Amino acid sequence: YGKNTIKFLRLHKEGKKHFAKEVEVCTHLRLTSAQEYLDGNNSLVIPTDTIKNIVFVLAKKNGIRCIEQFAIDICKHFMTTFCQVVYVKTYVQEAPWQRLHENGVPHCHSFISVPDGIRFCEAEQCRNGPLIVFAGIKDLKLMKTTQSGFEGFYKNEHTTLPERKDRVLCGELFCKWSYGECKDFDFDCIWNKVRECILEAFAGPPDCGVYSPSYQKTVNCIQMCVLSKVPQIEVIEVVLNNTYYNVVDMKNLGLTNDKEVLVPVEAPYGSCACTLGRKKFLEA
Asked: Less crowded by CB within 10 Å, the N or C end of the chain?
């Protein structure tokens, strides 16, 4: 049991310069006994309102240097403070506020919401067990207008999809990775590096791009790029939900449409998912 969608804005001030972190927290606990379920005995139950207040207090006392560290702080507090807690799991996601710049100068206290992916993390721990940390990015929308195709796929009497050598590749990406046992990582640096790898593998070099023969291959290229450049990550899951674009037929309007006007197909949509890990971790 636990408390979901604990939302708040944490401000930190250094003179005229302000720092802002707006987060949403979900914290769930498992207790030594199920007596509250079986017998209606609530003597061990930490009220969810108390859970919410503890999250606020930890934000006030410790601040939020990064969301991963904040999730770790929450897990450690419940595990060390309450002997009846045998498992704690905390999810934290961060609103995409970025400091506003005017003529290249960073503003001291104004921010802009930039919807270029939501950062999130999870931390979980069993009593007498290691504290495990996950992190990720979701709702990251990506598109390239060429250097993508889909050919040579299996066909039968139900196949109507034509082969395409050149198409728009567009999708919404979800990516989650595991650090394994918690260590003293620079979580901000790693998260930014993973995001750079995602964009690099998806888009390719800025002057020519990189060809994608399928959404599946693009998902694999993203994972391989991350694992090759970020050694702290042990396992990475990527889900790419596809958005298709169809070329509008303008013959009846007396126009030739050479893939200049397209309409998105909102539903149904395809989805590709894969989890990839290092051999040494999977064998363990």
From this structure: C
